[in-house]
Amino acid sequence: QKEVEQDPGPLSVPEGAIVSLNCTYSNSAFQYFMWYRQYSRKGPELLMYTYSSGNKEDGRFTAQVDKSSKYISLFIRDSQPSDSATYLCAIDSGGSNYKLTFGKGTLLTVNP
Amino acid sequence: GAGVSQSPSNKVTEKGKDVELRCDPISGHTALYWYRQSLGQGLEFLIYFQGNSAPDKSGLPSDRFSAERTGGSVSTLTIQRTQQEDSAVYLCASALGGGQPQHFGDGTRLSIL
Questions:
Q1: Do A99 and B59 count as a contact with CB atoms less than 8 A apart?
Q2: Rounded to the nearest 5 degrees, what angle is found at the Cα of A101, between the Cα atoms of A100 and A103?
């Protein structure tokens, strides 16, 4: 079983839709949870960072962590064509090197 | 302020040649990471530097890969005797410290002919 699983999509939605992106992980030692957005031929851009179970909201974005189920989600409200990108979940085990373990990414297209 | 800067943005070279990739982290960031992003593999950790401490090289795929960080700032990733499977995007990230959010550059796209 891979450490972090993410549905690769692709996911196509109409403008204004609510988007739900999800990852599951296997290692209960994982402590910090992130979502990155990556546009084509660009580096990943940090969207959300959280370390506790529950919800964290930032504008149209909400990150949700359920440590008991080892499940993390990113919700995008009122999606825009500019949200079209690949979304990557990333998890930090909190080990001595703080390396991030990434999901494979979900390609999202928001159609005008 | 300025983000993480990587150069070159693209590199094409022949199999067997050596390549050097450069990373300028965000000013004041003591933690620096290299990752590799390839089709089908996603993003994989390569190496971690914290300040002037000895690096964590646990993610380097072979002894052809090495990295250094001078003065706790700029880092260079070197790949010797390149192979076609080394073709990938090499991403650098920096953070205020270990465990802090990591910010990425746009990467170097390496193609081995």
A1: yes
A2: 130
Backbone angles phi, psi at B72, to 5 degrees: 70, 15
First to last CA, chain A: 38
Q: Which residue has the tokens 């193609």?
A: B111
DSSP letters spanning B39-81: TTTEEEEEEEEETTSPPB-TT--STTEEEEEGGGS-EEEEE-S
- Is A103 within 8 Å of chain B by CB? yes
Q: What mean pLDDT comes out for the span A6-11?
A: 89
Angstrom distances, CA of residue B112 to CA of B20, B41, B60, B80, B81: 13, 17, 18, 12, 10
A10 cis-preceded (ω within 30 degrees of 0): yes
Q: How far is A104 from chain B (nearest CA, A)?
A: 5
**B78, B112, B109, B62: CA torsion to nearest 10:** -40
B101 in A contact zone (CB under 8 Å): yes
Mean pLDDT within A24-50: 92
**Which amino acid makes up residue B90?**
Y
pLDDT tens digits for range B36-91: 999 877 899 999 999 888 899 999 999 999 999 988 799 999 999 999 999 999 99
Please identify among residues 33-72 of chain A the ones whose CB lies closer than 8 Å to any CB of chain B: 34, 36, 41-46, 49
